[in-house]
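Following up on my earlier thread - several people asked me to post the actual chain instead of describing it. Fair enough. Here it is, all 700 residues.
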Amino acid sequence: MSDNDLTVEEKVAIAALVISLFALLGVVLQYVQAVIGRINGLSIRDREVLGKWAEHAKISFRWFRGEVQYEAPIIFMAASDNTRGPIDDKEIWYVDGTRESCEKTRVELPTNDLRERVHTHKNELATWILAIEAAQMMERDSKQWEANEWRKFATESGTRSPVTLPYKGPVSLAVAIQPMRRSFDKHPAVKRPYATTAICHIIELCAVLGIYWKEFDRDNNKYRAEGNGYSVLGNRVHDFGLVFTFEKPGWPRFEKNRVIPTSEVKELSFGNVPTFYRDKKDDRNWKAPINEQKDLKTLQLGSRTEIAETLNLIRCNEYTTQCYSDETKKHVHLFPVVFEVLAMLARPFHIKDRPFTYLPNPVAFALNKQAFSPRRLLSEFRKRLNFEINTDQGPKYTPPTELANIDRLASDLEEELPKRDGEYSPKCLNDLHEAIDEVGDSILNKTSKDVVLDVLRRHVQEVLLAINTSQRDIDWAEYSPTAAAPPPTGRPTHLPMSASAPGTPAQPPLFPPLPTDEGATGDVSFDDLLKTPHEKREAALIKHYFDDIRIRAVSLDDTNQHYDQEAAQASKDIHYSEPGYDGLGLVGLQQTTTAQTMGTMSEDGTGNTTTHSSPRPPTLGINSRRATGTFSNGRLPPTPSRAETWRKHGLTNTEIRRNTIWFALVFRMICWLLLHDFDKKDVQLPKSELMGSRLSVFIV
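Reply from S.P.:
Thanks for posting it. Predicted structure:
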């Protein structure tokens, strides 16, 4: 049929049908456009936004509605041999820096070219992809650096590397990922693809990557962390939850500064420190609240309040705890004293045969090793210890075998370690680790915990008291210990005459200004450290420790010749309560001192027989200013006479035990500080209650 055979009506009908079909098509297209336009997250199906994860994004329709489904990671921290993740029956991908791991986690293998590490034009990319890339870079670069360190050691020593390179064994802390399908329709308030994690895991992830928190304000929902070329910002999104963004504004580096991949980092990140009193097999079963502990298996050091509570747990006196609860008190000599407590009690977190030494700082104060040298501390410690046990010019006692062992370990380390801090080969780090273990196994673990903690607490009490005692206060107390004000003349009459101008009579010196501190005042001051040259500060500190602090921490003389009689009596009570205590101190450590060596010395250090049932009257309370015992002329001795007793008569058996424990603690402290490093800008912020918290947070 030709067009000429169609009537006008038929032509009009056909034209109307065609127009109607076009109109129907337009309506359908408009409907489709409306349906598609209402799909949330349609624009994310792009490699510029999701990278390789975009290949797993798709559009699905349900009841004439479309939605974008995509896969995003659940990020968590676990041991590399862990098989249980947040999603059951789903494979866990562990980040190890290899090409296969990058393919599994769907990220590009980071380049080694520094010029390509920082981009200012990839603002559309989901920031959790940068976090995964950072973890891959950390594993790859640190393993390469580790292999180079062992090769360098093998070249210098002329031996083969004792470990297989690169390291491929299991680790107790790794970044783990599980993919999970998500839909934007479930959370319309969020416009960007997001990864899921928990608040504890993002804190741990930041710690592993060398990112430390600058602000952690849960009241105002403000969170900010930065470090090692990365930045993390967090805030609360209404009707959604805590949302974090991960950015790379700088050049990250994962070599010597790589954090030790050990499970204890999960506790250190929150200010909690496992001690050597906690068995490693109990780590995963650690379910009791930390703040309710009574056995000191964990130190809490994340805030001033937590430090004070920890010192209370160690049974320090009130003045010592006030040095941290009261911000006007001083607590630093060469470094914050709390790091002494940390290094004396904390486990060694170093992994043998691996050269990594950095840890997240669990303490509310920074540790700057540029201000002091642990290496020089070791040298001075060895020098003083070797001099004492090999000459007769120090305290009279026969050194026990444990003390000779400490001297041997210190001498070996002094000979092997380089003179410069931080330039230690993996073999040197292994030796430091073994020295810590040997001191613990041979002395500290064989001694009653109460005795070890008693020596530690008296050491800390005396150190903090010396830091807060000025030389001016000591001078005033020596001039007139019982007077409330200077004599009317303003000059003491019993002091040596001061130098005068020629032709004029000599005049006694003026009284020093009255002390301004109303708290306790000791008879040892660290003021001289302020004027000591930088290279000599360690020698000055060790001299104070050997000559002043040790006597006060070890002595059990509770007569009025000792500065703190109450502390000495409390220590004696602890020893008397030891099972098997025979009154001579022969408990725990091997004693080589004989009765002939000890002479007639008894446990009070005076030559007189004493018993536990006749305690001395206390003369120094927790907050009193000074001991009130005086000589016949009304003046206090400039130093406790117990020091002279040590040199003339020797130590009691119990004091020899305590002396060995003190040496073990100080030596362990120095070795621990040599073995571990902290970023000098890293300071712990209070968040210990979030350890193990599974509060969901999101990375966009």
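Residues 232 and 246 are 5 Å apart (CA to CA). That should answer part of your original question.
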